[in-house]
Amino acid sequence: QAFHIESPPIEVPFGQLGGTSLNAILALTLIRQQICTNIDILLLFSNPSIRQLAQAIEPLLIVNESQDTIITSKQDDETHILSLPSPLIESVGIILLICQWVLPIMIIINQCQPFLFFILPIFHLMLYVICSRLFSFKNNKPDNIFSWNYYRWWFLDRLWNNNRFWLQHIIGTPLYNNYLRLCGADVSLDAHIYSTTMDAPWLLDIDDGSWIADQTVFNCLHFNNDNNTFQLYPIRIASNCSIGTRTILYDGVNIENNVIVQPMSSVNGFVASQTIIDGDDDKSSSTNTLMTYNNRSLSIWHKIFQVIALCLLICVHSILLIIIYKVYSVVQVPLPINIALCWTLWSILGCFISVLLLKFIVGSCTAGETYQVASWSYLHKLWLRQLIVSSFHHAWLLLNSYDHIYPIVLRWLGAHIEDNVKIGEIHTFLSYPTNLLHFERGVTTFGSV
């Protein structure tokens, strides 16, 4: 290549091939770039033929490979040491998470004031706000796994998951949007957010009129398996977008205006405006489709209705807690048995009350009927239903999967269910109008359907 000869003889010296000092320097440069870096001009002149030069370079290549192997092994050892988890930090974090739940409950029980239980969710939610202000970070740079920054995210993520039961009561309301803003998110008060599955709430940016369906996953954490590092990416959703249920947003998302994401899709990166994403495919949307985004903002009366519904539901839980506390204080049995008895009683009463509320307060829906997002019908028939079901979700855990009571309850709520139907979980079917369900003979549904 340096001497511009396609097939040079390997025994002939370079000088006999018509080479000059410039050709030698060019050959030396190419050898350093492509074959061996630690070669000098003396080695080239002392081995003037191709065969001699190859025999002289070969030992140098073996030495370089051994040195590279040693350096690589040292780097792997250092990376392995850096990527080891810290049992001490994790143990302290777990103890703090347990204390966050147990200590307030113990204080309330010792004070013999059951009404203090209503301070419990406020304490838990505000504790996360304080911790997120102290530990959250927006530095979008790679960092080693199990580093201090990683454990900051790790603790906040576990703390958020502990509070998801309380957050289920305020999703779809301005209260939830305000809470996300307290946690550092840039969320519009007119956005409709029905998901609590997120690992870094402070990195969310959601504009006016966007709809985020339930069980949407906001995955800001990205783990790089090649070098054991992680990054936190922001997620931005512009105005008037619709994100379908069980959609996964990951590895940095920037969605522009008027985008429709169909249920169970996965989205990452940039999404142009007026796009429909169905699974992994995307296409431009039509003008007729975008016209359905008008008037998504709730009026002040709608918001007052949501607050009143929350207050009434709190009153229902208050009566339940008073009854359970009376039983707890009257029954003279060992503490573990007393706790199990109170839990069983609360679960039975909770299931009974939730079914009554769904039957006589929420009622049924007409097949094919359209509900505007900002309407009384939607708030009454869908939002209130999901609020009741999520509030009493843990009460239904008393029953086993495929319990024979599930079809009976759904039939009483208006569902058409034939014989030999087995239902894994009833929570999903209660969350949507049960009178629209039609199960024929022998149907079996598994969990998370």
From TrEMBL:
Coiled coil: none
Keywords per UniProt: Membrane, Transmembrane, Transmembrane helix
Residue intervals of the Carrier domain: 10-57
Keyword Transmembrane: yes
Superkingdom field: Eukaryota
Cross-referenced SUPFAM superfamilies: ACP-like, Trimeric LpxA-like enzymes
Keyword Chloroplast listed: no
Membrane-spanning intervals of the chain: 88-109, 115-135, 304-325, 337-358
Protein name per UniProt: Carrier domain-containing protein
